Amino acid sequence: MYDRKRMAEAWRTFVTTGVVDEDVVRPEVARSWRRCRAAGVNPWSSYFPDVDEALLKEKRDKYSHSLAANAPIMRIVMALLECNVSLMDQENFVFEFVSPLSYYPRTFGTYVLEEEVGTGNATVVSYEKKPVRVEGFEQYRAIAQTYSGVSAPFIDADGKYFGALNFNDPFNPLPPYALDMCAMGVDLANTLFLAKRSMNALLSTAEFFAPLVNLMDEPVLLLDMQGHVLLANAAMHPYVMGYERFSYGSQLVSAYLSKKTGADFLMKEAIKDGQPPAVVFKAPRKKEEHTLYLIRRRAIDLGNGLTYMVCVFKESAKVAKAAASRMGKPKVMGRATTRETVNYIGESEAWIKVDKLVRKIAPIKANVLILGETGTGKEVVARAIHAMSGRKGNFIAINCGAIPRDLFAAELFGYERGAFTGASESGAAGKIEAADGGTLFLDEIGEMPLDLQVGLLRVIQDQSVTRLGSTESRKFDVRFLAATNQDVRTLIDTQKFRADLYYRLSMVEIELPPLRRRGDDVRLLADYFNRDLSESLQLPYTPFSEEVMDALKGYTWRGNVRELRNIVERTLIMAGEGAKVTLSDLPAHVANAVSSGAKFMAPAKVMASLAEADAQERADQGTPADSPSDGDAAMRAERDRIIELVERYGGNISQAAKALGISRNTLYKRMGQLHLKVKVTVEVEESEG
């Protein structure tokens, strides 16, 4: 999370000493700062390049179709966020720009290059080739440090960067959801670009913009210029309840407004800084009325003969609470005691972030890519998204790594009679058709054969599927969720995964934290599994002892939640019930985690590598030392490697040290620096008689 004070200090330290405070500065920002310093960028410079009118005209002519595809998205975003929105080509030349400001001279018609203007979202995105956010003092030049910005790249099927969409606010921080909106904007622009002559058909209703509008936390209403309701996001629904039951664009907003403030007031009343007009809405079947404050209103010409009025409101705390009660009590996704109550459990800060994102995106028909280590609960989260989406169809899961390659296409797309040897006489629907009206979950998507990725991409874009052996295309309504424990960027770089499919599937990305970073969630989950498994195993439920819970919490859980569940099940079978489980019932590597005072974390300032420590010890003993490695190993990776090896060798430090290529004493010293201790348990088996 951006901390303005700490970031300002980190920036001052870097521009004066060249040292990056890696506890504060994000890696992509640090990389950019170093490039700026190496290029000789003056952090106090106020230089901006001049507009090149001739080149601007040339670029706009060259990219006319791209302009047409992006312009509606850019105008809607400007109205929603009241920020500058720009479009760059692969050379970072800004050839389109829209702004709520009457005059803004800086970037339009210029190259936005890091070696000239320093760190910013528009410069970092071309290096990172992924959606990025740059805030305040993360900007390298002082003149830009009032800015907040996000960018999302346009990437082709081969992973090549060919431009970016940028949002920038010169005065205020962009909202947390701005980065998701930027990535969504790129996806919608790609959809329009590929539609070509059908572009205007896609833009014929405001529903096309629903994925953008639904990301907004504030109530948003889209009207036509006659005051008909076209689209409302979830936060707005309580105030225009039932509008979707009418035919599109037929219900007037006046039907929901009090006589105190009618449609003319909503659409024409002046909005003054700090004094948003109060718009009064009727309450359904009740006498009381509710006031929303109109903070933004802008008429947007889409360029296809349609003009929308975009209205953004602010709720008072009292109004928001009343609205929430009218919509019904939300399903709680926190602590639970029975498997029927929730799909997942977590109260840690890391998991609360996941839960908030799941709640936000569940009602939106946006494709989601779920990332995380094996066993972190990717399918559980996918099922939760489906359950909260309101979709009436089935949740269909398919493991892309478990299906033989020769059967994959038939399993996914379905087939007709005689499509291949051994095909059923009646043919069969594929998983996509089975998920019609619901959700298709593609687990281990990184294992999907490359040639089938092309077919899947087309299916997702067209929302239609053609069975093997058929020429008939079948329309469907499916939401796609995907998951992987692999680094998709690496797969793209090694040409094992198509970049265009990645961007199609990852409208929203959810990264699940490993269990070792979820704090007391280990206790919650252990207790939940204890209750759940005791019931299924027909055992009495009794809680685990504190000693057992401490051991479970102290262990690093390489297999995450899945491993925890397996160990809880094993101990219940061995002991008979939770209260009877002791450390001796746990695997030795788990029981050892309860070592007195052990902390599986490294002090922030310990940076020496094992090789350097070993070299120092040899020097102290008068033994020739090998040359130290060029770079320090990351502490977390180093710590995890030590834990892994000590566990592998059952606590035998000599064998672990040998595997690391260092002495036993060096390993003990390094473990002390990293606050790692090993507890060894000895079991004595008494002989009979």
Automatic annotation (TrEMBL):
InterPro entries: AAA+_ATPase, AAA_lid_NorR, GAF-like_dom_sf, Homeodomain-like_sf, HTH_Fis, P-loop_NTPase, Sigma_54_int, Sigma_54_int_dom_ATP-bd_1. The keyword DNA-binding does not apply. GO terms for biological process: regulation of DNA-templated transcription. It comes from the Bacteria. Residues 612-634 are annotated as: Disordered. Pfam families: AAA_lid_14, HTH_8, Sigma54_activat. Residues 344-573 form the Sigma-54 factor interaction domain. One of its GO terms (molecular function) is ATP binding. The lineage of its organism: Bacteria, Bacillati, Actinomycetota, Coriobacteriia, Eggerthellales. This is Fis family transcriptional regulator. Keywords: ATP-binding, Nucleotide-binding, Transcription, Transcription regulation. PANTHER family: TRANSCRIPTIONAL REGULATORY PROTEIN (PTHR32071).
